Amino acid sequence: MCTFCENITNKEKQITWNVRSIMADDNICEFVNDKQCSICGGCKMFFTMYGYDFDDGSIKVGIDYNQYLKSPKGEEVIIRPFSETVQFNYCPFCGKQISKTIKDFDKNYAIEIDDK
Length: 116
Prior knowledge:
This protein is 16% helix and 28% strand. By secondary structure, the chain is α+β, with helices and mostly antiparallel strands. The chain has a domain at 1-20 and 32-84. It is elongated.
């Protein structure tokens, strides 16, 4: 068992990593604070990963995007879009089976691959 396996379902722990690139043109800063970066004190954008151990023995993992901005009036704006969790049958790092029940990905999740 690796550190990921041991900690993914620990509700006291949360895995966090910073956004590598802020090249996306989402216009959020233009609308929230008129691109006044000194108000925010730096771009606070990061991802968090968390896990749940359900009663049926399945391990569900979710990833959230987080962004914090300040308006010219000093009000904090928190952006946290959310999504559904996905069951992890096996640890992506060490390969150990972490869910007691194995869920067939193709039958349980609607996936669309846009291959343009």
